[in-house]
Amino acid sequence: SSEICPIITDAFIASANHKMIPAGYPYKVGYSWAPPYRFQRITQVLQQAKAGNKLDVGDMQRLQTDVLSLPALQLIGLLRAATAQQKPGPAAELLLHWKGEVKRDSAAAALYEVWLQIVTRETMNLAIPAAARTMIDDWSPQQAIGFLQGINHSGLDTPALTRDHMLRESLEEAWKEMQKLQGVDSTKWSWGQMHHVRFRHPLDQMPGAAALTDPLPVSRPGDEYTVKAT
To answer: Quick one: pLDDT at residue 152?
Structure first.
C-alpha cells in the first residue's frame, strides 16, 4: 500500500503516466519526464521476489534507503572503456573500484557527483551547436549518458576517440575541483561534506533565533537519481 511503501508508489505512478490516456489520444499531456533510474532500481530489487526470493521487512527497509546509482554505473562503464588502453590515473582508479553507492562517507561518490556535472556540460557542448547552446536546458544524466553511449565505439572511430578523450579530461577537471573543495588528500573526501539537509524552525527568521531553534545541518547520502532521494 502507499502507506507502507510511499517511494515505490510514487515511482510506479511516475512510470505509468502513459496509462492515463487512451491509445490514439490526439493531444500531448507532457513533454518533460523525470529520468527513470529510481523506478528501474526499484524494479531490479522487486524482481528478486519474482525469482522466488521473498522480500521480508528488512529487504523493504533497505530498499527505502537504497543509494545505488544506476547512472553512476553507466558512466563508470564508459570510463572503463575510455581508459582500457592506458594506465588509469588516481581519479579513474577511485571510480573504477567504486560500487556506485552514493554513501555520505564516500570519496568516490563526491568525485562522481562533481564529474557528472562536468560531463553533462561537455557532452552538451559535443552534441549541440554553439549557437543553440544557450537555448537548451541542462540535460539529465539519461540524456547525456544516452548520447555518449550512442557514439560508435569501434577501432579508431573519431567520435569515439573524442568521447573517450572528453571523459578522461573531464574527470581530471573534476579531480582538481574536488581538491579545491575538500583538499588534496582524497582519502578525506566525502559526499556528506557537500550534501546536507537543514531542518528549520518557523521562528528562525527572527534575528538571532536560528542559533537557538535550528539543529546543525545533517549530511545526507543518495542523490535525486537514487531510490533514497530525500
So the answer is: 65
Point out which residues pair with 68 in neighbouring strands. Answer: 101
pLDDT at 3: 37
CA separation for the pair 31, 28 (Å, rounded)? 7
Q: What distance in Å separates the CA atoms of residue 226 and residue 230, rounded to the nearest whole number?
A: 9
Residue 5 confidence (pLDDT) above 60: no
Name the residue among 31, 32, 115 with its Cα closest to residue 69.
Answer: 115
Instruction: Concatenate the DSSP letters of all residues of 10-21 into one string.
Output: HHHHHHTGGGGS
What's the CA gap between 108 and 131, in Å, rounded? 35
* Closest-CA residue to 37 (of 66, 5, 4): 66
* Cut 0.85: pTM above it: no
With 0-12 CB in 10 A as exposed, 13-18 as middle and 19+ as buried, what is 137? exposed
